[in-house]
Sequence to fold (312 residues):
Amino acid sequence: MNIGLSIPRLPDAEGIRRFSQRAEELGFESVLSGDHILLPTAGTNQYPYTADGSFQRPVDEPFLETMTTLGFIAACTHTIKLGSTVIILPYRNPVVQAKMFASLDVLTNGRMICGVGVGWLEKEFDTLGAPYSERGAMSDEYLEIFKCLWTQADPEYHGKYFDIEGIQFNPKPVQQPHIPIWVGGHSRAALRRTARYGDCWHTTRQTPDFVAENLPYLREQTERAGRDPAAISISLKRSLHFTDLGDNEGRSIRTGGVVIASTQEVIDDVYYCRELGIDQLTYDFRVEGIDACIRVMEHLASEVLPVAQRLG
Fold:
C-alpha cells in the first residue's frame, strides 16, 4: 500500500521545498496539491464534507495556484510523484490544462498524477465565468480532451464545448498510455466518471467502510464501460492527527474524513483499509506550520510507512 501526503496550504517557498524533499527522502509515494483560486468573503454552505456545509478554514486561507506549485516542487525533487488533489476541471481551459500536465510529466520524467474533480463552490465558478450547473458535463468532456491530446498523433475531438482538429500537440507525456487520472468525489456520478475515465478513485473525507460499500457499484460501472475493474486503484484521503506524539494527547476519533488516533490505531486502520481493497492513502496533517507538519511526517514514516509498504 502506498502513502502520499497533501502539501500544507502555506505561501512559504522554503517550507514547501523542505516538506517535499523530506517526503521524498522518507520514501512517501507522492506529494499532492489542492485547488482553490479564491474563497468567498461571506463563507459558504456548500462544502460537501460538513453537516452544515461550512468550509472549516478561514476565508483568507492562502491557496497557491496548483500547477504553479507543482512546477516549483518538480524543480525541488527527483523521484517522488507529484499531483493534484484535486484540480477543478472547469476552472481552466482543457487544452491548456492538458499542456500543463504533459509539460510537467516530461520535465519530471514521468512523475505526474492528474487528480481531478468537478468542484463544489458556486461563488468560485461564478467569479471565473464557468457555468456551475454544467460542471459535470464539462468535466467529462475535458477528460476526453486530455486523453485525446495525450495519446493521438493527430488529435481530433468534437464535443459540446470544444472542437479540436488540424493541430499538433507535443510533447506527449512520458507516461504511457497517458498520465494517470485520479478521479475525486464521493457521489455515484464520481464513481461513473472513474469507471469511464479514471485510473484511480481518489475519494476524500470518507470512511474506509464508505469506500467498501461503494466498490461493488464501481466494479459494476467499470464493467459496463467495457473496462477491467482491476485496472482501477482505490485511494482514500483523510486528515491525520496522532494523539500520542509528544504533547498531542487527546481522544481517539476515526470517523468521516478525520483520523485522530494513537500510532497503533493508525497502523490498525492501515491494515483495515488494505483488507477492504484500498490501495493508497493520502494524509494531510491537523497541525499548524511546516515544522509541525514535518514532525508528524517523520513519525508517520518511522512507525506507519514500513507497515504499509509490507502490505504491498
The chain has a mean pLDDT of 94. The CA atoms of residues 191 and 217 lie 8 Å apart.
